[in-house]
Write a structure and sequence with these properties.
The structure holds 2 protein chains of 2 kinds.
Chain A: E1 10-14, E2 19-24, E3 32-38, E4 45-51, E5 56-58, E6 62-67, E7 72-77, E8 86-94, E9 97-100, E10 104-109
Parallel strand pairs in A: 1-10
Antiparallel strand pairs in A: 2-7, 3-4, 3-8, 5-6, 6-7, 8-9, 8-10
Chain B: E1 4-7, E2 10-13, E3 19-25, E4 31-37, E5 44-51, E6 54-57, E7 64-66, E8 76-78, E9 87-94, E10 103-104, E11 108-112
Parallel strand pairs in B: 2-11
Antiparallel strand pairs in B: 1-3, 3-8, 4-5, 4-9, 5-6, 7-8, 9-10, 9-11
The chains are: A mainly beta, B mainly beta.
Chain lengths: 110, 113
């Protein structure tokens, strides 16, 4: 079975609702951030990124918000679908270093 | 388009055994990396390579060796397996850099008894 992902924060949403997944980062010097999606038994998949000179970036059904004041990053998924069920984690990047969060498990109820 | 291919998908070893995890990419990426993923933790970088013939240590290199004889292949060797090396191992590649968006394989789930 899937052992990675135990003890992660979880978010359960109804299909069609919007999802907000949060990430607190540690280093104010981090200047680039990436969100990944990891489905059960699969490798992480790039979703969207944002640089520290931006507050918001939009993709297809996803939006990333960056609040540098409180070192907080969020991923918003619009009209959440069953295929969005996965673990989502952020990565913070500064010069010669990249750190990954443990992630949040999103479950979409039909 | 295969992307990043890892073999085997599952492996069980006894303490003290050695083995090689295979990783191959067909995207002609210069940068390749190995990570381990443990329950409740973020990915941690083991070793990385910025091109054929060049490798360097990441955050948790002890107990692992790598080599990069070709652009395509980046095997990870466990010299003498220990229970603490039980983990899921991911290989990744990138055209932009080690600390840039990565293309990941689907992992090798390794158990050390």
């Amino acid at each position: 079975g899937e052992s990675v992902g135990l003890h992660l924060p979880t978010l359960s949403v109804q299909e069609g609702d919007n999802s907000i997944i949060n990430c607190a980062y540690s280093n104010s010097a981090s200047d680039y951030f990436i969100w990944y999606k990891q489905e059960s038994g699969k490798g992480p998949q790039f979703i969207i990124d944002i640089r520290s000179n931006m507050d918001k970036r939009q993709g297809q059904r996803v939006t990333v918000l960056l609040n540098k004041t409180v070192k907080h990053l969020s991923l918003q998924i619009a009209a959440t679908q069953p295929g969005d069920s996965a673990v989502y984690f952020c990565a913070e990047i500064r010069i010669n270093d990249m750190r990954f969060g443990a992630g949040t498990r999103l479950t979409v109820k039909p | 388009n295969a992307g990043v291919t890892q073999t085997p998908k599952f492996q069980v070893l006894k303490t003290g055994q050695s083995m090689t995890l295979q990783c191959a990419q067909d995207m002609n990426h210069e940068y390749m990396s190995w990570y381990r993923q443990d329950p409740g933790m973020g990915l941690r970088l083991i070793h990385y390579s910025v091109g054929a013939g060049i490798t360097d240590q990441g955050e948790v290199p002890n107990g692992y060796n790598v080599s990069r004889s070709t652009t395509e292949d980046f095997p990870l060797r466990l010299l003498s397996a220990a229970p603490s090396q039980t983990s899921v191992y991911f290989c990744a590649s990138s055209s932009e850099g080690v600390h840039q968006p990565q293309h990941f394989g689907d992992g090798t789930r390794l158990s050390i008894l």
